[in-house]
């Protein structure tokens, strides 16, 4: 009967007892591998020193910046390809619906009923808040 203990094979004979066989090297381990240091995964790494915001700003001011170099204030981005999100004029929740009569956006049946009860001057005020150009007659 043979049993395996880590990478050693033990032969168990009922008459003589356990006998240790030759050590067989594991196929996935390199026999000449040596760890780079004691202390786990971060053994060979230097400790990172963190800079605070004042130090970062001071080091950026010292760099030779040109006038046309990009910064946070002059980066120009192209318009987004995604359509703008639409929100309800009443609750501010994401709106999937638009009232065809008043052009106000709403997200639930209760808001639709509320919009239909609003007078035209209040509807015009909601549209002005959204900066919508359509004016309700």
Automatic annotation (TrEMBL):
It is found in: Nucleus. Keywords: Nucleus, Transcription, Transcription regulation. The keyword Transcription applies. The keyword Nucleus applies. InterPro entries: INO80C/Ies6 (IPR029525), Vps72/YL1_C (IPR013272). Residues 86-115 form the Vps72/YL1 C-terminal domain. It comes from the Eukaryota. Pfam families: YL1_C. GO terms for cellular component: cytosol; fibrillar center; Ino80 complex; MLL1 complex. GO terms for biological process: chromatin remodeling; positive regulation of DNA repair; positive regulation of DNA-templated transcription; positive regulation of telomere maintenance in response to DNA damage; regulation of cell cycle; regulation of DNA replication; regulation of DNA strand elongation; regulation of embryonic development. This is INO80 complex subunit C. It comes from Chelonoidis abingdonii (Abingdon island giant tortoise). The gene is INO80C.
